[in-house]
UniProtKB/TrEMBL annotation:
GO annotation, cellular component aspect: cytosol
Signal peptide, first to last residue: none
Protein's UniProt keywords contain Disulfide bond: no
Name of the protein described by the UniProt record: 8-oxo-dGTP diphosphatase
InterPro entries: Nucleoside_phosphorylase_d (IPR000845), Nucleoside_phosphorylase_sf (IPR035994)
One Pfam family recorded for the sequence: PNP_UDP_1
GO biological process, one term: nucleoside metabolic process
UniProt keyword annotations, A-Z: Hydrolase
Claim: Acyltransferase is one of the keywords in the record: no
EC number: 3.6.1.55
Domain Nucleoside phosphorylase: 6-241
Organism name: Actinoplanes lobatus
Stored PANTHER family: 5'-METHYLTHIOADENOSINE/S-ADENOSYLHOMOCYSTEINE NUCLEOSIDASE, 5'-METHYLTHIOADENOSINE_S-ADENOSYLHOMOCYSTEINE NUCLEOSIDASE
UniProt-recorded Gene Ontology molecular function terms: 8-oxo-7,8-dihydrodeoxyguanosine triphosphate pyrophosphatase activity; adenosylhomocysteine nucleosidase activity; methylthioadenosine nucleosidase activity
């Protein structure tokens, strides 16, 4: 089962604060090596987010992205922040969602000049489909940002190791010559993309708000406060995409769960196949049996016991355990009072306990029972 947590990384403090403002009750989560993350939820019913600050540059971005992936086992990694626009058609405040990321500083120096040796990482297909749907729907727009409605562009981003603030420098010429389809330029996306690539193609999406034109006018646009506005737009899109990525993954799991696994037995001679089944949790009954009433409140109490045991033996961290207890409290209230929404609450709980096999299996059975009673 897939995690309901998404890692969102930023390079600058203003980018970090733009995302942090979207989180409910963020709590500090220290990595043993000293990296400080904050975890929170996107609203009461939203997905969980682990937020981290990586600083400038592809190298620290790669290291801390890898650290976040190992620490949280997320459903996806998003990088949200500001960048320089490379084309006049891309306005200040617009967004660029990376269809692919170029690490443009790779090359070889030969007698007749510098030759490009590019590396590129494409956005995973499913993540790209979800991002483009979100772009079309405009459901991500945050009216509190103000100003002209930004356009979201889907195209390549160039990631290097220097701040480009010229349209006529040798560096600018190099980018135009070898990466002339890039829409924006920045300094961290290649590191994050590489970390995701090394983790079995974990979905990674880079979202950049355009705060300058990379043409020598950066000090002027920064003075006009375009950085905070661009960062706010990027944060709004990132949190909307995080929620959509988790929702889509959960929906896919539910479809697979409803279909169930298939098993094929072949009987030879006088043998007959009686039952085809995979792994069975709990009792198995064969033959006619009258339906028995299900005590949902008691089933939730048993889930609570299993969740506490998992926390005590270290299989659930403190933050996840507290969130699971809150969902169990809500589920108990809804089951006892007959209020609606119990199934939704249990599905949220399933995202929290997905990595604890016996809890996840027991919870799946409860969800089926609740669905049958609906």
């Amino acid at each position: 089962m897939t995690s309901d947590l998404v890692v969102i990384l930023t390079a600058l403090n203003l980018e970090y604060e733009a995302v942090r403002g979207k989180l409910d009750n963020p709590r500090v989560h220290w990595h043993p090596a000293g990296t400080r993350f904050e975890t929170g939820r996107l609203g009461r019913d939203g997905c969980r987010v682990a937020l981290g600050l990586v600083g400038k540059g592809n190298h620290p971005a790669a290291v801390l992205a890898e650290r976040a992936i190992a620490e949280f086992s997320p459903a996806a990694v998003l990088f949200a922040g500001v960048a320089g626009g490379l084309w006049p058609s891309i306005k200040l405040g617009d967004l660029v969602v990376a269809s692919q990321v170029y690490a443009y500083h790779g090359g070889t120096s030969e007698d007749d000049g510098l030759k490009a040796r590019p590396r590129a990482w494409e956005i995973p297909h499913r993540a790209g489909q979800i991002a483009q749907h979100l772009i079309r729907s405009e459901e991500w727009l945050d009216p509190s940002v103000g100003g002209e409605r930004p356009t979201v562009h889907f195209g390549p981003i160039a990631a290097g190791e220097v701040v480009q603030d010229s349209s006529v420098s040798e560096h600018a010429r190099w980018v135009r010559e070898h990466y002339n389809d890039a829409l924006a330029i920045e300094m961290e996306a290649a590191g994050v993309a590489q970390a995701a690539h090394l983790n079995e193609a974990l979905p990674i999406v880079v979202i950049r708000g355009i705060s300058d034109r990379a043409d020598g006018t950066k000090s002027s646009t920064d003075g006009q406060n375009w950085q905070p506005r661009a960062a706010a737009n990027a944060a709004a899109f990132a949190v909307a995409l995080a929620q959509q990525l988790v929702t889509d993954s959960t929906a896919g799991q539910e479809r697979n769960s409803e279909m169930g696994p298939s098993f094929r037995n072949i009987a030879t001679g006088n043998a007959r196949v009686g039952v085809q089944a995979g792994q069975i949790f709990g009792g198995a009954h064969v033959g006619d049996r009258a339906d028995q009433p299900v005590d949902i409140v008691a089933a939730i109490a048993e889930l609570r016991r299993l969740v506490r045991a998992a926390h005590q033996d270290g299989r659930l961290d403190d933050d996840t355990y507290k969130a699971a207890e809150a969902e169990l409290d809500d589920a108990t209230d809804r089951a006892s009072s007959g209020r609606g929404g119990l199934l939704v609450t249990l599905k949220r709980l399933s995202g929290l306990v997905a990595d604890v096999a016996e809890v996840a299996a027991r919870l799946s059975a409860v969800i089926v029972a609740v669905r049958d009673l609906s």
